[in-house]
Structure formats: structure tokens, C-alpha cells
């Protein structure tokens, strides 16, 4: 998916000022955002109070939406820079096309990982015909300065590693978790893992004390170290934890995102991550000018998304502000 907001806010991200020095249990209720004309998503990151969890810079949770009678997801070609997109479905199917010539469909349990690096363009659509429900998460990972100009790449991993213990089934999207390591390319120490928790389960999962974490309830609900986590909300867990206790009264799916706190200061606007306002303006002008930087999405029949008008403020990375 894309940030389809026609008046996107400028976000200054990064720096260690807002990273918790120890465990936290801060509820991030998320905010409903309208994408395009009909798709509603819950945006968990960035929010007013928190903008990054490790290198995870953007978290949208959408669905389950009944798309049986409609076109479903229809996101026209748009660009990205300086980030990776991590697409994760619980239900449905998405057809991804990009300016590298990638042309794949992915479904639940599969990882679609796009590294924008220097620049890429892609489109995402529900295929026709498509399954009746669409439910998933769109995640962005900020690239560190040393890797942000890397050549664009797309990876599709149809099977992912994971493990099962009593009442818990894990699927590792990114990084390593409990001895299982995702094949997805990562550029900073981070982890993304889907936790399928059985009804009545009481489990303890291992964490890295140097990482900060957020936990999203994609479906169902859970109790996390005694704190309630309702569907489509996120708990910021801070740092300094070696394990996390989860109980669930109903079968639930949780998305655990974590990583080393991201020290560099970033500017995020629309679908771009850069280091300064000047860079962001360049990216937007290059996209609207059909620069070769982003290439052309092969096989997409329709108009591209134009970059929205830039906000009338200087876009400068100042660190993570509240
Ligand atoms: Mn996108």
C-alpha cells in the first residue's frame, strides 16, 4: 500500500530522545485514516507519541474488509526512497508490480519485501477475481544512511521459518526470533514476527533486551504482561525485556515488531524517507517529472499517483519530537 494522503504531514523521526530506557507498556490506540476513496486503515505508527520502533517507521493495519463485490485494493504506481516496505497478509491476495519488472501475487503467510533504496516505483492491486476478504499490515522499515542509496530490490518469500510451542505458532517475517531466521534482507538489527496465539494460551516469548518493541493485535485480543491489548491497537514495550508473557482468551494474531533504537535523524513525507527537506523536495519533483530515478511500473494500466503539494514549511530532520 501507499500513503495516499493528499496532504501528508511531515514527520521527523529518529534519534534516541524518546526511546524508553527500560520496559514500558504504552498503549498506542492508532488512528483511522482514509486511503483513497473507500479504504480505511488504522495507523499505529507514526503517531503523535511515537514515531519509530527500532527502524520500523510506519505501521498500517487494514481489514478484514469484505471486498467480494468491489475492486479491493487498487493502489496506482507511486515511488519510494530510503525505506523497505514489508507487506503481510492475514487474508486475501495482492498483485505487486514494480519498476524492476517484478510481477507477483502473494497471499497470507508470504513475505513481500521491497527495498526502495535509491528509488523504486510500484503498484498494488487486488487481482481479479480475488478472495472475498482482505486483511493485513503494511509496514515500512527505515534504511540507515549507509544503505539508503542501495539499488532497489524486491523479494518474495512464499514460505517463512517459525516454530510452534504449546499454544503458540510463530512466523518470522524479518530478523531472527527464538532460533528461526527470516530470509528477508534487513539493514539494521530488527525483528518482525507473527504470533498466532491459541485460545486459552499462556505463553512466554523471548526478547532481546537491547531492542525496543511494539506489539500489534491484528486479530483477536490478548493480555500482555497484565495489560489488555485490543484488536488493532499496539502496545509500546520499551527496551530491557528478556521475555514477554502473553495470555489470550480467544485465538489471536499478534505482530511483534522490534529493533535496536534508530539513532539517525530522518525526514519522512508522503512515500519518501530522506535526511533533509531539500532531499524530499528533490524526490517529489523527480517523481512528478518522471525521472528515471524511479523507473516505470511495467504492466500497469492506468495513471500514476502524483506527489501531493509539498507543505509550506522547511523540512528538516530535528530528531524525534513529541
Ligand atoms: Mn507503496
What is the total tally of β strands? 27
CATH top-level class: Mainly Beta
> What is the typical, i.e. mean, pLDDT?
93
Question: What percent of residues are in strands?
Answer: over 45%
Helix and strand string, N-terminal first? EEEEEEEEEEEEEEEEEEEEEEEEEEEH
Envelope shape? globular
Question: What does this entry look like structurally?
Answer:
The protein has 322 residues and is mostly beta strands. It has one domain: Jelly Rolls. 4% of the residues lie in helices and 47% in strands. It has one helix and 27 strands. Strands 2-23-20-25-18-15-14 form a seven-stranded antiparallel β-sheet, with no helix packed on it. A hairpin with a 2-residue loop joins strand 14 and strand 15. It is globular and about 55 Å long. The relative contact order is 0.22. The mean pLDDT is 93. It binds manganese (II) ion (MN). Manganese (II) ion binds next to strand 6.
Amino acid at each position: 500500500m501507499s500513503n495516499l494522503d493528499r496532504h501528508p504531514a511531515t514527520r521527523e523521526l529518529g534519534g534516541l530522545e524518546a526511546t524508553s530506557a527500560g520496559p514500558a507498556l504504552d498503549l498506542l490506540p492508532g488512528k483511522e485514516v482514509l486511503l483513497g476513496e473507500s479504504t480505511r486503515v488504522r495507523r499505529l505508527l507514526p503517531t503523535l507519541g511515537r514515531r519509530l520502533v527500532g527502524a520500523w517507521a510506519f505501521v498500517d493495519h487494514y481489514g478484514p474488509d469484505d471486498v467480494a463485490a468491489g475492486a479491493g485494493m487498487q493502489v496506482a504506481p507511486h515511488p519510494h526512497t530510503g525505506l523497505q516496505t514489508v507487506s503481510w497478509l492475514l487474508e486475501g491476495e495482492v498483485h505487486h508490480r514494480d519498476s524492476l519488472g517484478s510481477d507477483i501475487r502473494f497471499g497470507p503467510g508470504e513475505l513481500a519485501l521491497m527495498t526502495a533504496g535509491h528509488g523504486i516505483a510500484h503498484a498494488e492491486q487486488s487481482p481479479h477475481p480475488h478472495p472475498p476478504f482482505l486483511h493485513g499490515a503494511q509496514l515500512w522499515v527505515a534504511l540507515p544512511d549507509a544503505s539508503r542509496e542501495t539499488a532497489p530490490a524486491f523479494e518474495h518469500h512464499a514460505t517463512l521459518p517459525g516454530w510452534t510451542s504449546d499454544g503458540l505458532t510463530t512466523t518470522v517475517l524479518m530478523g531472527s526470533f527464538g532460533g528461526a531466521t527470516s530470509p528477508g534482507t534487513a539493514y539494521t538489527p530488527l525483528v518482525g514476527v507473527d504470533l498466532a496465539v491459541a485460545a486459552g494460551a499462556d505463553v512466554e516469548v523471548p526478547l532481546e533486551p537491547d531492542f525496543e518493541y511494539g506489539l500489534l493485535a491484528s486479530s483477536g485480543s490478548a493480555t500482555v504482561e497484565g495489560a489488555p491489548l485490543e484488536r488493532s491497537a499496539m502496545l509500546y514495550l520499551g527496551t530491557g525485556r528478556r521475555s514477554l508473557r502473553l495470555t489470550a482468551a480467544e485465538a489471536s494474531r499478534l505482530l511483534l515488531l522490534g529493533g535496536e533504537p534508530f539513532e539517525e535523524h530522518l525526514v519522512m513525507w508522503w512515500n519518501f524517507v530522506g535526511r533533509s527537506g531539500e532531499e524530499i523536495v528533490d524526490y517529489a519533483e523527480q517523481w512528478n517529472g518522471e525521472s528515471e530515478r524511479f523507473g516505470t511500473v511495467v504492466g500497469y494500466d492506468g495513471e500514476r499517483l502524483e506527489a501531493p503539494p509539498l507543505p509550506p514549511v522547511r523540512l528538516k530532520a530535528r530528531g524525534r519530537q513529541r
